[in-house]
Amino acid sequence: MNSDAHQIISQVYKAKKDSHAADELIQAYMPFIKSETARFLNRPPDKSDDELSIAMFAFYESIQNYSKLRGSFLKFAALHIKNRLIDNYRKEKRNKGQISLDVSDDEKQDLKDTIRDEHDKYQENELREATQQEIAELSAQMQDFGVSMTDVAENSPRQRRTLEICQRAVQYARNNPEILDDFLRTKRVPLAKLAEGANVERKSLERHRRYLVAVLLICTNGYEIMRGHIMQVLKGGENK
Questions:
Q1: In whole angstroms, what is the distance from residue 125 CA to residue 132 CA?
Q2: Burial bucket for residue 223 (CB in 10 Å: 0-12, 13-18, 19+)
Q3: Contact criterion met (CB below 8 Å) for 231 and 215
Q4: DSSP one-letter string for the chain
């Protein structure tokens, strides 16, 4: 780890406990925050833009949620900022269903359809780019664990029983952050702890170790889009 990366991590850990240090860190990295906001808006942000405020708060959330086991802080923060901006865009899109104009009902409907089409295309492109970025980040991180996307696809549970076993193991890990920290530190799935804590068969977990690597990484490293999809599968449609 180079000296700059070490310095950033030290500043982040200090900011976790000191609100004044957190404010100073946010101010120091305002060019970074503005750059990530500009990347989303496709233009430099103005001080009055809600997106800039959202990005600043997302940067603060990144400080509070970061662990040095998660790799580069700035990459972690950039992904979190983008996810927060996408969430905000989705909320705005839902709220723009109401249009108050002095036009006929048919004209209102035409205008709604036009706005909906334009926003749907924009949202689809943004979501696609964000998903591709998450997949690229995840693929790179999985390499440290000796696992590829092909391994995960081939190692995914095929039967409902084994899926439920993985579900219980993942949920136990999520409820016990120290297990996830140990997983990131050692780069090994703690099969014995998961089996004992979730009260499931270790052999079943061993057969799906490569799949568990991907799911546990998704649960620990800010992959919000992919986490939503995988939690729907593991929790039978529940997205939390």
A1: 11
A2: buried
A3: no
A4: --HHHHHHHHHHHHHHH-HHHHHHHHHHTHHHHHHHHHHHHTSPPPTT-HHHHHHHHHHHHHHHH--GGG--HHHHHHHHHHHHHHHHHHHHHHHTT----SS-HHHHHHHHHHHHHHHHHHHHHHHHHHHHHHHHHHHHHHHTTT--HHHHHHHS--SHHHHHHHHHHHHHHHH-HHHHHHHHHHTS--HHHHHHHHT--HHHHHHTHHHHHHHHHHHHTT-HHHHHHHHHHHTTT---
- Classify residue 17 as left (phi > 0), alpha (psi -120 to 50) or beta: alpha
| Range scoring the smallest mean pLDDT among 22-36, 110-124, 138-152, 194-208 | 110-124
Q: Is the pTM of this model over 0.85?
A: no
Taking the C-alpha atoms of residue 84 and residue 49, their distance in angstroms, rounded to an integer, is: 14
Q: Which residues contact 78 (CB under 8 A, 6 or more apart)?
A: 32, 36
Residue 184 neighbours by CB under 8 Å, 6+ apart: 67, 69, 70, 220
CA 177 remoteness from chain centre: 16
Of 96 and 212, the structure prediction assigns the larger pLDDT to 212
Structure tokens at 16: 């976790």
User: 232, 218, 45, 54: which is closest to 131 by C-alpha?
Assistant: 218
- Structure token digits, residue 77: 């923060």
Q: Which amino acid is at 202?
A: R
